[in-house]
Hints:
Layout: E1 2-11, E2 18-20, E3 23-27, H1 30-35, E4 72-80, H2 83-113, E5 124-133, E6 139-141, H3 167-176, H4 180-194, H5 202-219, H6 226-237, H7 241-256, H8 292-304, E7 307-314, E8 324-332, E9 335-346, H9 351-366, E10 373-378, E11 390-395
Parallel strand pairs: 7-9
Antiparallel strand pairs: 1-4, 1-5, 2-3, 3-4, 5-6, 7-11, 8-9, 10-11
Amino acid sequence: MNKYRIYALIHGQTLPLGRVFDCEIKYMTYDEQHKRKFEPLKSSDFVQPFTEHKTYVSHIPYADPKILKSEHVAIADIQEDTPNGAIGCATKSIEKICRFLSLANLEDVKRKHGRNRGSFEPYIYQINKLYELDDLGKEHEISYMLQGYNIYLPDRPEKSSWSNDQINNFLEETFYFYDDVFHKALKYLYNASTGSFENRSPEKTSIDHIKSIEIMISAISNKDTFKKKLKDAKDKLELTDDEVSKIEDLWEQRSEYGDLAHPKVSDRAESLPNQFPIPSDVEYTGWFLDALAPNILLKYFYYIRELFLVDIEVVDIQSKKNDSLIKIFTQNQRGFANENYYHYKTKERNKHKIKNLLKKAFITELNITESKITSIEQIPSNNKSIYKKRFKIRICMKD
């Protein structure tokens, strides 16, 4: 075991000097901090062997965004095998003290000004210096820097054109095809996939990943529970048994396991060896370089692009105008978007005849054969008037 001393700047409403549990709080001038070369912990961007690659993506394992100016420091003496373990131990100790100082400050306000006064004002800390101690307790400078531990896509790109010559068409179709659920699910999925590069918390990354799946499953089923929605979605999206099993497993992790959806009394991370950065208590297995969510996203896109919504407007029967099918474009921040949304004006009032008229109108509009239209159904509504009906048409868009 080696002996280390960690200095952390600390800031709060009331700072009692002296021993506070496992640490000591002292006053330290800015001149003294400057002499000691105080600065927040830093990370290198890569491990040395990675320099052989011309291009790559890596990430620093820790980045402190705080700007903290204080003339008070918390000092922790730690016995650990490595500097990394010492910083991890000190971080847990100082953070725990800050939590309880924050609570004590609130109680102090309430006892002085009344129980209905005060708010939780967190005490903030920032580790700024690490020393190694000799047997006499003398401080010695030590060089310490966190290092990244992986690289992503080294020496890419390897080509400048897609393998399939239709991908440019796919790219344009998906970009301009506007479905709220599709765009939000892709955003959730992308955020989950890049979470580690952005140093987002595992909680945020895990929730983003399961939400990317959850929002699509919920959008195509009106069942009252997720498992019932998933069963409904299995047929519509043509999910495999393996995909359904994996979704159920991730949903259970999201719903039952530590610190994602529900509070958890125990903290698995507290029982792990001291290390830095402090590990999370999230038990979720699905997010990085995942194949499940993107597969479902593609299946959702191919399913939803075959659905056409048509609002019916019944005009006066004496009208001399012919029936007309009008495509509706919705304007958003990116311009006009394709939503497969149409408006149909007709003099016909019989819904069965309207279905046949819609079929003929879409055959002409999309230049397709009748066999491509797989279903036409009226969307259930409490409104009994045919003037306010909406139909859903399923058209096979595959070649």
